[in-house]
Amino acid sequence: MDFLADESFDFRLVRPLRAAGHSVTSVLETRPGADDATVIRLAAESGRVLLTEDKDFGWLVYVSQSAPVV
To answer: What would the mean pLDDT of 43-61 be, rounded to a whole number?
Structure first.
């Protein structure tokens, strides 16, 4: 499975996901400091499932409907 790990996602979990054969792109490694809207856009454009511990994403996606849901 393809994932995009947000900066708030515990990086200690990225390594075992990769070791299990999943494709995990980490915002911490590729786009540090990216705002939430950018992270959601990156996940949608790349077809990746967003991994996050940031509760603001739920509001952005479901309440405000300001971001695409894939």
So the answer is: 80
